[in-house]
Write a structure and sequence with these properties.
CATH superfamily of the largest domain: P-loop containing nucleotide triphosphate hydrolases
Number of strands: 16
Radius of gyration: 26 Å
Helix content: 40-55%
Shape: globular
Structural class: alpha/beta
Distance between the termini: 64 Å
Length: 530
Amino acid sequence: MEEEKKIKFPTTGTYDFPSLILGGEGKYVDKTGLLYQLASPKVDAQLFISRPRRFGKSLMLSTLQAMFEGRRELFKGLAIDSLPWEGWETPYPVYSFTMASAVGETYELFIESLAKLVKGLCAQAGVPYDGTGPVSGQFEDFLKAAIKKSPTGQIVVLIDEYDEPVAKFLDDLQTLKKVRSVLHDFYEKLKINSGGIRFLLMTGVTKLTKLSIFSGLNHLTDVSMSPDYATLLGYTPAELDGPLRENVEAFAAKNKMDFAAAKKTLLSWYDGYRFSPDSEEKVCNPVSLGNALKSGRLANYWESTGQATIIVNRLKAADEIPADLNGLAATRTQLDVCAAETMPLPALLYQGGYLTISEVIDENAFRLGIPNKEIANSLAEGYVSSLLDAGLSDWTEQLVEAREGLRAKGVEALLTKNLKAVFAAVPHEWKIECEREAKRYFLLFMKLIGADISGERQSARGRADAVLADKGGVYVFEFKYGKTPREALDQARGKEYAGPWLDSSLPVFYVGVNYDPAKRGIDDPLVEPA
């Protein structure tokens, strides 16, 4: 029997480029042509780029390190191997570190960790470490000594997760300001010594600190929205057709699909990230797609690697729900600058990877949207988990039954059975004290069971509370609290909330829903044709 061909899968957990290449197990999707362009001496050599977590930033920095160190044997067959890369002839000393190692529970521990980081850099360079005075001064002493010792008279500095120390103290503004001040002085030494730095690249998830820390780094070029590097991190649909084709074919075979159907399904789950308003290129989350290809199973891999607590807490504080986030307006300035004290929701969600550019209105205005099914699930489940804490488990049976009912019998069964059951299962400690709270639980429940629903839909005479699309029709909802389903339905009909959908090929229905606080449940929903 012929031995089954062993397929290499794109990396999902290896962020060290030499280990990935020499190990021979993982598949590296070649981005070295773009990295050559990024690091060319003919362009700006002091750069910053932000991308969501688990998007391959660490692997990118590791690849750049190997390039500048001139390790050509690692790049055989890759795009850069045939290019006149300077590192092949003149390697540079590279100092690559993550600011995650400088995180401390207190300000004092932060300073201690940052000093320890500098001490390690000095040891790597083989230069003396004094250890006295401000840590920013210690860092400058290292830079000057390392530059002086370099055979080329220059060094390369690669910094990952630059914003980690700040993120730790977002709930403690007094400590935050002190930490930010130290980092401002620390990073400023890079600017002061930029003549001895051949290439500097800083990465992070957000730009929470840009206004303050980056005032000491105003020589950096921010390429986060550059169309030239829109596909630098993440996999494009074309790469699914090219280097990842055998992986998509294996996924298709396991799931009894043809290639086209498998590709479409994978893209609907993991694609949709648009990082430049000046390019229509979109990319998939590389780690999530890699996990799906390797396991042969669609799942929410991104959220399982760790929740973005900052973002979930901001959602909760803003009283937003996932369905309300599609179509959110934002300006280029709002997306580019994010002050830690205010943390504008659109910028935070965009930079965190929960929203992406869905429409370009003009050169300075965009609409944002949820990029794919994985993120829709992350928003819904992450938000619900944060809002309801452990109580979500009490809903599990209702969620499973409702998912099955929605698929098998459609919306009518959901309205007549599951909706009442889920509100009956709401624990007493959960607050439902007004119409807004009742509607929020309804929308979250519908989102969690995979219903095609959105909240607060505008018509000529007002907003429907929700609109649900199903193969059997379009359902326009109005919610009431402490009244009757008839009052809810009559309001929806009287204000013609169904107007935008009346020319649909599907039948349109009004649905009146009332939450009765005395019974802590809903009355039988009232459904009538529009």
